[in-house]
Every structure is written in structure tokens, then in C-alpha cells.
Design goal:
mainly beta, 22-stranded antiparallel β-barrel, 5-stranded mixed beta sheet
Length: 928
């Protein structure tokens, strides 16, 4: 747990700013802050009247601050963090509460909503905001007002709806990287009862980096979205709105940033025992005592090194078959340009989303409103890229390395090898024909969702009111995560030839099916495929009761009952599994569940949660208006089902438990200085039980639960000291502490104990043995002249073996939870002749350091970072024209937002995720 004097300094700075306000107001006419209306409590009210920690942004505010999309929200909201995830997701984290688990059945901690409808799968990471009425971000557990519960908070994007005005807007923007952005909107009232609104956005730009191999752009954008809305209001008491929202992307977006690796070449000796006197044998032996990449800080001088392939599954296959001699990336250093990649092919990124919503409102009486919200969505996503994103420095052997597992097979070196792999070229259907180590991965999914929410809320004149509702949600998804590597295909082709006579067989006993398709279709056993179709059925009843004890004091009691039913089809990973008719195992295709497990895994969670508290509007001598509130709330996020593993994995839990948060929060919202200053603050304490976090073990994700405490303070302020000048500030302080638990850090299994040695298993998972056991195993390997004898160490063949030293997690911080986040903004407006207005704005953001994982090691530390956005605009409200110039990330900072640690069999490299580089441009808009 960190201690800091920063909060004191920030509070002093805030007090100083308030002290200066009187002098500033005397200089020039003051200007009150316009009211921002939100629907955080399912009714329209001023944000200053809402007893919830909520930040809200209109379309105009988003554009002025250059908050183009979901990832940019982090720049304006206290105690919020955002990073892309390793696969197709992201982590939008509020107050330290996010999604650090890897599981299809895992729920997000932050609920993403479009027009109040929950979206389990969404494009918050990819798409940009356009034609929105506002974006609301609620912090803290939610569930008694929103149809889908969330432990961290809620992001609610509310689109503009059709109005009774004929109006339109067109905007064109051009920037560096040949960026072209187009946006438009037209609103047309058809009759007194009908109105239609159409809006759209288009973005196309060059890549932020280059693919050094192909010479093409990497991480480009080519995407569009459009939205059609129809309003039908036949009577004064009934309203219906239909919304269709479309998103499409097809480009070279890089799902992952740079790969981090400080190469681990292996020890010089083991317990004083030297490696074999035969260099080729010693080379293989030493590689089996390497973990691939060392656990070094992200700013290490050698962080752009390359993985030692001898410590990977692909490298082991290369050694077994004699395809590769030593490390395929020996001496290789990556480009230090964090935007560039080195890949045989350009990244492929395709996303497609369709959302249809029907919103019905009926004024049952003057005091009762019945609302129905129906939502249907469909998402498809496909991404393919190079798994390592750099090419080897050492080619495959034209004749096999004599130290291989098939050396005793007659004709292997003279006939079989040169016939199958002429010149060392491996013919891999998925990766192409190459004479060097080649890998790629695919993350794809297709899902659909239906939800129906019904609410009834009152607006009686008396002391009591209510807002109650019910939700039914049905969600299903089916997808794959493939990892394809040509040494694996080559190894299976050799064995298929020996066992069946056909290297590319697809049927028969002893055959490891080779998928003949470039795009895999789950038929092959020559690649890794995690396939786990998943479905969720969630039902809930929720609501709040309000008692207005007096004109200025109100009690709120909220309750929620939730039932989550989850099912996951259980398919074992088929990599390397041969056909076996006696056991009913086909040579190709899916093979069903691992032995001893069910074909369909199911889990059910049923919980009662809620919140209770008050809000009070006292008349204070030093404020124009104040709202003070205090609440206790209990948040819940369902547990789930761990991903499938291989046929021979044992001892892994099939499920993980739910999360619970007991949240205590007090806050105040104040309007001061004749409406020119808003100053809001909140303090909170969370008792966090069952935080869900994952680590990759034996090529599958294992999700664990730990407990923690979270405490923090948030300040938000807007100040208009004089008519043309406005300041805004958001400051968050966060202190997170894990309260107990232990776990093995797979990145540092020995924890520096000199009496322990890490060694590879036959699956290339890592284990830990005593130095004596490791030395004994190496001595026997030397005596046998067989480096592959070491593959039995983790099976206990030479002495006890275990997973490693457990780390005590007590006192460590939650990941991605920086102690401070600071957002500061200032804008100045100048009124000119002929109706023109000039505006200049600067926004500054700072985030202190944090950690990528719960172990809080030096390798986990993410450095503090800053961001500066600049905007200058010239607008004329009378004729509707405006011109704008902007710079985002003006200092061109390369900030790392998170890292993802791969598993032992990949060599424990880390994938890093970065903020975008500096971008600038000019835009022209016309409204009418």
C-alpha cells in the first residue's frame, strides 16, 4: 500500500484556486455554469441534484476536449483507467475495479450501455462517438437502477433522438497519417407524430507504424458507423423510438502493441554440473533450463529483445524434429519503434455489429410512467496477426540437426526429412511455406444478445415514490482462439508419415489431423484451438423506494435480485491429439471434453444486493446550493467457468467464484460564487471479496479469487471566473490493498532462491526442483548423450517437482490502479465581429505509476504518463460554420497502459499496449 503527500498538495492547490476567485470576478462580468441534465437515476435531472458520483459529457464537450471514443474517457474522469486487452476485449477500470480475468464466461466490472440497454459485447474500444446527446459514467456498484448489475460502474452512451426540428450537420476533418474523418446528421420531422434522424461517421487513416517485412502500414483504420432513429408519438401519453445502430471495420488494426522480452539464454551450469561436452547436445540442454524471457522491468535496456525459442513449445518441436538448431531468434533485436512490426503478413482486423432497439414509454397516469426497452444485437469479430511479430535470424536446417528425437529412424536424415522439407521449407497450410520458424494467431467470435427491460416509476406529490423494474437477458457466443506454428505442423507431419504413411492425413488411428485450410476451421489437431461456446441467461428484479422526509432530505432504499445461469460446452484442446477409434477420438475435428469432465459445464448464481442511504440539500451560508449524500451499496459480479484445457490437464478448478463489494460512500455537490463554480467531491471505502484475476497455466487461463480493500477520494470542479474563461479539474486518489491470499508467480517461480532451479516439462510448462535434483538430471542426460531425458524432470523422474514458491499477496496493490489521476482543462472564448467566436482550449492529464499484475514485482510496474490535448476553433452560430485545429498527445508520449504475460510454452513474453501517438489536424463543420 502506497503512502503519499500528493493529496495534501492537490487539496492546497484547490483551496488556493478558490481563494483567487474573488479577485478574478472583480475584474470582469461573471458567467454562471450551464446546467447539464442527466438520466443517471432514470429521470431527467441536473447532474448537481444526483446523489451518485457521475461524470457526463455532451457532444460539444467531447469534441472540445478531443474525447473521440471510449478509450479517451480516461483523460477526463477521476480514478478511471483503460487499456486494450490481449484478445478481443479491453479493461475499463473504475476505482481499481476492472476485468483482469480471461474467460469467455467472465462478466465485465463496468457495464457498457447504449441508450440504457446493456451490451455484453460492444465496440467501445473501436468506435468513435458521434451524434450523442451525452455520455454518462457512473462510478461505484450499480444494479438497483440499471438492468444489468456492475461492480465497478456504468458507461451509458445516449444518442440524440429525433426532434421536431428540421436540422442537419456535416463535418470533414483531415489530419496526419492521412486521416480522413467524416460525420453527418440530418433530422427530419415527417408529421406531428413522426420524426426521423440519420447520423453517420467514417474514419480512414494510414497506419501508426510500418510492417518492416511487407513495407505496408500497420495499425491502420478503415471503419464506419451509422445510426437511424425513428420517433413515433401518436398521443400525448405514448412515445416510441426505434434505433438501428451499425458499426463496421476492415483494416490492419494491431490487436496488440509491442512484444517485451529480455532474452533468457539459460544458466551457465546447473548446480555446478556442466552441460554436455557435445556442443549440439549442450545447446538443447541449456534451452530446457530457460524460461524464454526474464522478469525484467518494462524500461530495461534489453526489453526489445526476442524470446529464446528453445524455451517454447514451437522450439521444442523444432529440436525434436531437428528442424531448428538452437534459438530461432539468436542475436535478434526488435525495432525500438513501438509502432512498427516485423511480420510475414499484415494484421487483419474485421468487426461488424448490428444493434436494434425499441424504446416505449406510456404515461399510465400523470404520476406513473411505464417504460419498455427491447434490445437485440449481433457482433462478429475476426483478427489475425503474427504471434511474435518479428522474423527469425536463424533459418531451418536443410538437413536435420543430428541431435533430434528421430535420429534412430532409418532414412530420417537422408530420405524422409529432405522429402518432406526440401531445403528446410515446411509446408504449413495455415502459415504458408517457409524455411524459418513462423507463428500466427487468430481471435474470432460471433455472438448475439437479446434483452427486455420493463420499468415503472412514479412522480407522486407525496413523500413516497418508487422506481421498479425487471430484466431478462439472453446472450450466446461462439468463437476460437487459434495459435498456429509451423514447427508443430512439421513434427506432426513426420509422425503422421511414420504412423499412417500420409504426412497430411485427416483420418485414421495414430493420425494427428492436418487442417488443409489457410483459415482454420477447428478440424486440425496441428494447432492450438481454444473453443468454448458459451451462453448466459440472466433475470433480475430491481428497484428503489424514495422517502422524502422533508423538502431537503430524502432516504433511498434499493434492492436487486439477480439470477445468472451460465453454460459452456466443454471441448478439450486438440493440439497433438492422434486419432484413436478405441477411445472414440477422431483424428480431426473437436473431440469433446477432457476425461472425467462433463460435456456441458453449467453454473448458477443467485444473489440479493442493494443500496441504502440519504441525500440532503442543506442551506449553507457559503454555497448557492449543496447536495450531501451518503450510501452503502453491495455490488455483485457473477463467477463463471474456466476455459477448456488439454486432455491430460488435471487438478484445475472448472469454475471461479463471484465478486462482492461492500461499498461505503459519502459525497457533496456544491454550486458556489453565484453559480460560477461547481465543486463536487466524494470519498469511498470498498470491502472487496473474491476479486477475479487470471494467469495462464499449461496453455489455459486459470482464474483465481482474492480479497482486497479499496479507498479513495475524488474531486471534480468547473469554474467560470469571468465570462470568457473556464477551468475544469478532476482529481482522483486511490489506495488499493490486497488483504490476503497466495499465488505462484509464473514469471518468477523460484523467487530468487538459489537452491531452486526452473526446468521445462515435456509440455514446455515450467516446474521447479531443487538444485540437487536438477544437477542429478543433467548428469544423467550427459551420461546418456540425450538432452531430451531432461523432459522427465517435471514428472518427478529425478526427484520431487512443484509449481514454485508461493507469493504472499497481502499488502500488494490491485493491478491497473494508479494512486493519482489528474485532469486539468482551461478554455478561453473571444467574441468577435459578425457573430464569430474564437475558442482556445488545453487539456492536461496525468496518471501515476501502477502495476500490471497482482504480484507488484519490478517487472509489473507501469510508469506514470501524461497527455496534452490542444484545440483552437472559430465558429459562427448564425451561419453554422466552424473551423477547428487540434493536436492530441501533443508531447507524443509513448505511454504503456498495460501488459499481458503469456504462458510458459510461449516463453513468457509480454504484450504491451500503448496510447496513440501524436495526431493533429483541421476540421470544418456546417450546421443548419
Amino acid at each position: 500500500m502506497r503512502k503519499s503527500n500528493h493529496m495534501k498538495a492537490l487539496l492546497i492547490a484547490g483551496a488556493s484556486a478558490l481563494a483567487l476567485s474573488g479577485a478574478a470576478q472583480a475584474a470582469e462580468e461573471t458567467s454562471t455554469i450551464e446546467e447539464l441534465v442527466v438520466t443517471a437515476q432514470k429521470k431527467a435531472e441536473s447532474i448537481q441534484d444526483v446523489p451518485i458520483a457521475v461524470s457526463a459529457f455532451s457532444q460539444d464537450a467531447l469534441e472540445k476536449s478531443r474525447i473521440d471514443g471510449g478509450p479517451n474517457l480516461v483523460l477526463a474522469i477521476p480514478n478511471v483507467n483503460f487499456s486494450k486487452g490481449n484478445f478481443n476485449g479491453y479493461n475499463f477500470q473504475i476505482r481499481g475495479i476492472g476485468a483482469k480475468l480471461v474467460a469467455t464466461s467472465g462478466d465485465a466490472a463496468t457495464g457498457i450501455h447504449l441508450n440504457n440497454a446493456p451490451l455484453i459485447s460492444n465496440n467501445l474500444f473501436e468506435t468513435e462517438f458521434y451524434d450523442v446527446e451525452r455520455v454518462e459514467v457512473l462510478r461505484g456498484p450499480q444494479g438497483t437502477l440499471y438492468g444489468r448489475n456492475a461492480t465497478g460502474g456504468v458507461v451509458n452512451l445516449i444518442s440524440n433522438k429525433p426532434s421536431d426540428r428540421l436540422e442537419g450537420m456535416a463535418r470533414a476533418e483531415y489530419g496526419n497519417y492521412n486521416s480522413i474523418k467524416l460525420r453527418g446528421m440530418i433530422n427530419a420531422p415527417i408529421s406531428d407524430a413522426f420524426a426521423v434522424r440519420l447520423a453517420g461517421a467514417y474514419l480512414k487513416r494510414d497506419g501508426f507504424g510500418k510492417n518492416i517485412v511487407t513495407g505496408n502500414d500497420a495499425d491502420s483504420r478503415d471503419m464506419y458507423g451509422y445510426r437511424a432513429s425513428v420517433r413515433f408519438e401518436p398521443t400525448d401519453t405514448f412515445r416510441a423510438i426505434v434505433v438501428y445502430d451499425k458499426f463496421h471495420e476492415d483494416d490492419s488494426r494491431s490487436r496488440i502493441g509491442k512484444q517485451f522480452c529480455s532474452k533468457d539464454v539459460g544458466p551457465a551450469n546447473v548446480g555446478g554440473v556442466a552441460f554436455s561436452a557435445v556442443p549440439l547436445i549442450a545447446q538443447v540442454q541449456r534451452g530446457l533450463f530457460s524460461q524464454g524471457c526474464l522478469a525484467t522491468p518494462v524500461n530495461s535496456p534489453d526489453i526489445f529483445g526476442t524470446v529464446n525459442t528453445q524455451a517454447t513449445l514451437g522450439g521444442l518441436f523444432g529440436a525434436l524434429g531437428g528442424f531448428q538448431t538452437g534459438d530461432a531468434y539468436a542475436g535478434k533485436i526488435q525495432s525500438r519503434d513501438v509502432r512498427d512490426i516485423e511480420s510475414n503478413f499484415d494484421p487483419i482486423y474485421r468487426a461488424d455489429t448490428d444493434i436494434v432497439q425499441l424504446h416505449l414509454e406510456w404515461d399510465v397516469t400523470d404520476s406513473l410512467l411505464l417504460t419498455s426497452l427491447t434490445n437485440q444485437s449481433r457482433n462478429r469479430l475476426y483478427n489475425r496477426q503474427d504471434y511474435n511479430r518479428y522474423t527469425p535470424s536463424v533459418n531451418f536446417n536443410a538437413t536435420p540437426n543430428p541431435v533430434n528425437a528421430l535420429a534412430a529412424v532409418p532414412g530420417y536424415a537422408t530420405t524422409i526429412y529432405p522429402t518432406l522439407f526440401p531445403g528446410g521449407v515446411v509446408k504449413d497450410p495455415q502459415n504458408g511455406n517457409y524455411n524459418r520458424f513462423t507463428t500466427s494467431d487468430i481471435a474470432s467470435n460471433s455472438d448475439k444478445q437479446f434483452s427486455q427491460e420493463v420499468r415503472l416509476q412514479s412522480s407522486f406529490d407525496g413523500a413516497f415514490n418508487f422506481n421498479v423494474g425487471a430484466l431478462y437477458l439472453d446472450y450466446s457466443t461462439e468463437g476460437d482462439y487459434y495459435v498456429m506454428f509451423n514447427t508443430g505442423t512439421a513434427w506432426y507431419q513426420v509422425n503422421n508419415l511414420l504412423n499412417t504413411g500420409n504426412p497430411n492425413c485427416t483420418t485414421g488411428n495414430g493420425c494427428v489431423g492436418i487442417d488443409p485450410n489457410k483459415d482454420p476451421n477447428r478440424s486440425g489437431h496441428n494447432y492450438f484451438d481454444s473453443h468454448a461456446p458459451y451462453s448466459l441467461t440472466s433475470t433480475a428484479v430491481f428497484g428503489e423506494l424514495y422517502w422524502e422526509m422533508s423538502e431537503d432530505f430524502k432516504w433511498t432504499l434499493g434492492l436487486r435480485w439477480t439470477k445468472d445461469e451460465k453454460e459452456q460446452r466443454n471441448f478439450a484442446v486438440t493440439l497433438g491429439v492422434p486419432g484413436n477409434s478405441a477411445l472414440g477420438i477422431p483424428a480431426s475435428g473437436l473431440i469433446g471434453p477432457p476425461p472425467g469432465t462433463k460435456a456441458v459445464l453449467a453454473v448458477e448464481f443467485e444473489e440479493m444486493t442493494g443500496r441504502f442511504g440519504f441525500d440532503w440539500k442543506p442551506e449553507l451560508a457559503f454555497t448557492d446550493q449543496s447536495l450531501i449524500y451518503a450510501f452503502y451499496s453491495r455490488g455483485y459480479k457473477a463467477g463463471g467457468l474456466n476455459p477448456a484445457c488439454s486432455q491430460n490437464c488435471t487438478g484445475l478448478n472448472a469454475t471461479f467464484e463471484p465478486e462482492f463489494i461492500n461499498a461505503y460512500e459519502v459525497g457533496a455537490k456544491n454550486t458556489l460564487l453565484d453559480g460560477t463554480l461547481q465543486l463536487n467531491g466524494t470519498a469511498f471505502l470498498y470491502d472487496y471479496t473474491g476479486y477475479q484475476v487470471s494467469k495462464i497455466v499449461n496453455r489455459t487461463s486459470i482464474n483465481e479469487n482474492i480479497d482486497a480493500e479499496v479507498r479513495g477520494i475524488e474531486l471534480e470542479s468547473i469554474w467560470n471566473p469571468i465570462q470568457p474563461l473556464r477551468f475544469n479539474a478532476s482529481i482522483g486518489w486511490l489506495d488499493t490493498e490486497i488483504t490476503g491470499g497466495t499465488s505462484v508467480d509464473v514469471f518468477n517461480r523460484t523467487q530468487g532462491d538459489p537452491n531452486l532451479v526452473l526446468v521445462k516439462a515435456s509440455s514446455t510448462a515450467n516446474c521447479v526442483v531443487s538444485r540437487t535434483t536438477a544437477a542429478t538430471a543433467l548428469s544423467i542426460s550427459n551420461a546418456l548423450n540425450n538432452p531430451f531425458a531432461l523432459l522427465g524432470v517435471c514428472d518427478g523422474a529425478f526427484g520431487p517437482a512443484n509449481d514454485g514458491v508461493s507469493v504472499n499477496l497481502k499488502g500488494k496493490e490491485l493491478p491497473n490502479a494508479p494512486e493519482f489521476t489528474v485532469s486539468l482543462g482551461a478554455q478561453y472564448t473571444v467574441e468577435m465581429e459578425n457573430g464569430w467566436t474564437a475558442l482556445g482550449r488545453v487539456d492536461y492529464y496525468h496518471q501515476t505509476d501502477s502495476f500490471a499484475r497482482i504480484f507488484n514485482s519490478a517487472a509489473d510496474k507501469l510508469e506514470a504518463w501524461n497527455n496534452v490535448n490542444l484545440t483552437v476553433s472559430l465558429a459562427n452560430a448564425d451561419n453554422g460554420w466552424s473551423v477547428e485545429a487540434f493536436v492530441k498527445n501533443a508531447t507524443d508520449e509513448e505511454a504503456i497502459t498495460d501488459t499481458y504475460l503469456t504462458d510458459d510454452s510461449s516463453g513468457l513474453f509480454r504484450n504491451a499496449f500503448y496510447t496513440e501517438p501524436r495526431t493533429f489536424g483541421i476540421g470544418v463543420s456546417k450546421t443548419w
